[in-house]
Amino acid sequence: DAGVTQSPTHLIKTRGQQVTLRCSPKSGHDTVSWYQQALGQGPQFIFQYYEEEERQRGNFPDRFSGHQFPNYSSELNVNALLLGDSALYLCASSLGGGDQQPQHFGDGTRLSIL
Amino acid sequence: AQKVTQAQTEISVVEKEDVTLDCVYETRDTTYYLFWYKQPPSGELVFLIRRNSFDEQNEISGRYSWNFQKSTSSFNFTITASQVVDSAVYFCALSEAWGGKLIFGQGTELSVKP
């Protein structure tokens, strides 16, 4: 039973560029959340997708956008990259619905901005 | 506003010692969920436990135990007879009942020395 998989593992970009990160949820899960984790900090919620729509959003600028596909996989897009966007980006999946089910996390994508 | 505080940034113990990781939370919701996650150096957040606000029973799972006290808004985590493999960063997190957003504390880095 595959867990949450993210790609790529590492990525190096320069300021002003755009980046796309990908996530495949754990089998049977239909909800995907994205988090940003700066070095030495706890993860910060970016947004969550359910039924191909953004269900909830954290305090991140519009440069951060996402998408969920019919197979429940998801992408995180960041435009006009800033040095401060350097972080570990974590994807989490869960089973949607009213009850708060535990979110299962992937290994993350480590993004470095030069 | 919701907030999670883990006052202990780093803890260092010797193998076989017991250690308690503190977590204090703030929320105005009457229904909420609390979580603990473990993050080894690989980066993946590993789910350890979920507790809802109506269940104050303490829980024990092997060497791990959790103490949930609504009166003090705390959800502390104790590792009994610690082992080197317990070395990791541990995060406490809070979420609303119907939302997907997890609010994490800053994390406590636990180092267990042989």
Describe this structure in words.
The complex is a heterodimer of chains A (114) and B (114). Chain A contains no helices and 11 strands. In chain A, strand 4 and strand 5 (44-50) form a beta hairpin. In chain A, the strands form 2 sheets. In chain A, strands 2, 4, 5, 6, 9, 10 and 11 form a 7-stranded mixed β-sheet that branches. Chain A has a 4-stranded antiparallel β-sheet with strand order 1-3-8-7, with no helix packed on it. Chain A is mainly beta and 114 residues long. Chain A starts with a strand and ends with a strand. In chain B, the strands form 3 sheets. In chain B, strands 2, 5, 6, 10, 11 and 12 form a 6-stranded mixed β-sheet that branches. In chain B, strands 3-9-8-7 form a 4-stranded antiparallel β-sheet, with no helix packed on it. In chain B, a hairpin with a 6-residue loop joins strand 10 and strand 11. Chain B starts with a strand and ends with a strand. The model of chain B has no long low-confidence stretch (mean pLDDT 93). Chain A binds chain B through residues 31, 33, 35, 41-45, 48, 50, 55-56, 58, 88, 90, 92, 94, 98, 100, 102-108, 110, and chain B through 4, 33, 35, 37, 42-47, 50, 52, 91, 93, 95-107.
- Main β-sheet of chain B: number of strands, strand sense, barrel status? 6 strands, mixed
| Termini separation of chain B | 41 Å
Strand content of chain A is over 45%
- Give me the count of strands of chain A: 11
Helix content of chain B: under 10%
Largest sheet of chain A: 7 strands, mixed
- Cα-atom radius of gyration of chain B: 14 Å
Please state the CA-atom Rg of chain A, rounded to the nearest Å: 13 Å
Q: What is the chain-wise order of helices and strands of chain B?
A: EEEEEEEEEEEE
Broad structural category of chain A: mainly beta
Biggest interface, chains and residue tallies: A-B, 27 and 27 residues
Order of helices and strands of chain A: EEEEEEEEEEE
How much strand of chain B?
over 45%
Percent helix of chain A, as a range, is under 10%
DSSP helical segment count of chain B:
0
| End-to-end C-alpha gap of chain A | 37 Å
